[in-house]
Design a protein that fits this description.
Blueprint lengths: L1 E3 L4 E7 L2 E3 L2 E3 L3 E7 L2 E8 L3 E5 L5 E10 L4 E3 L9 E13 L7 E7 L1 E3 L2 E3 L1 E7 L2 E3 L9 E7 L1 E7 L2 E3 L11 E8 L2 E6 L2 E3 L6 E4 L2 E7 L2 E3 L14 E3 L3 E7 L2 E3 L10 E3 L6 E2 L1
Parallel strand pairs: 1-4, 2-5, 3-6, 4-6, 5-7, 6-8, 7-9, 8-10, 9-11, 10-14, 10-15, 11-16, 14-17, 15-18, 16-19, 17-20, 18-21, 19-22, 20-23, 21-24, 22-25, 23-26, 24-27, 25-28, 26-29
Antiparallel strand pairs: 12-13
Length: 272
């Protein structure tokens, strides 16, 4: 089945859908997914957001998702009454955001809601065995590979992240592999992160229980970095209970004396 060039949705799935072998192209939203559905062996491409997940209990496997205007995959509650939790995605190939202007646009956006100063978090998302890539886009904008805000218990495991590296320009580049704020229980395990143009990971505002284990960071602070952008792992503001265990850092840029980690938190909040 295919859905092409619809102004709103290629597929608008409410609950308990089973979607297999579909192709959605250049719809405003390729797939809008509510609760408790399964999607497999399918491709979603172009439009504003190829895949938009607004509720919990969904399973996606063997998915190709690329070339959105605002992002490629968004996991965000439909409204403040939705409890978005328990999402599993495996064997995902995802990349490229073709936006406009200077605003940083993430390829994967996991974001809860802040309503009247109350956080409505996204819970329990697992993304595994996947490729997240950012080659050149059609319009000059920076990208983050993953943005996480107002979220809890988010796991990335056995994934490969690729930035633009030395092919970046001053206004087209991969800013961070991970940008995290106001979140907790974030696990990044057994991943390879290559060619990021500023800090590979930036964590700020109030975050806790960040664990980075058995990962390889190969090249960061490349091409467009300056100042603190040359730091591979950057923690600012109030960060609590962070572990960095068993990681490899490979500096393939021209700056051989780059710092690996910077934190404004108390040293005893970190385990290395």
């Amino acid at each position: 089945m295919g859905a092409f060039n619809f102004k709103e949705f290629g597929i608008n799935a409410n609950a308990l859908w089973r979607i297999n072998n579909v192709f959605c192209y250049k719809n405003k939203i390729g797939l809008q997914l509510r609760s408790d559905s399964a999607v497999s062996n399918s491709e979603f491409s172009r439009g504003d957001i190829p895949i938009n997940i607004t509720d919990g209990g969904n399973r996606l496997t063997n998915i190709w998702c690329n070339s959105g205007k605002e992002g490629c995959l968004r996991i965000k509650p439909l409204n403040s009454s939705v409890n978005l939790r328990n999402t599993s995605i495996s064997n995902l190939y995802i990349g490229e955001v073709y936006g406009e202007g200077n605003e940083v646009k993430p390829i994967i956006n996991i974001e809860g809601l802040l309503v009247n100063n109350v956080q409505h978090r996204v819970f329990d998302v697992q993304i595994s065995n996947s490729f997240i890539t950012n080659a050149e886009g059609a319009v000059s904008i920076p990208n983050d590979l993953v943005s996480i805000k107002y979220a809890e218990n988010i796991v990335f495991s056995n994934c490969n992240f690729f930035g633009q590296g030395l092919y970046a320009s001053s206004n087209r580049y991969t800013r961070h592999a991970f940008y995290i704020e106001n979140s907790s229980m974030i696990l990044i395990n057994n991943c390879t992160i290559t060619g990021i143009n500023k800090s590979s990971l930036k964590v700020q505002k109030i975050c806790s229980d960040i664990s980075i284990s058995n990962c390889t960071f190969n090249g960061w602070g490349q091409a467009v970095a300056n100042g603190d952008d040359f730091i591979c792992l950057y923690f600012s503001d109030e960060i609590y209970r962070t572990q960095i265990i068993g990681c490899n850092f490979i500096d393939s840029s021209s700056n051989l004396n780059l710092s690996l980690i910077k934190s404004y938190s108390e040293p005893n909040n970190f385990t290395f």
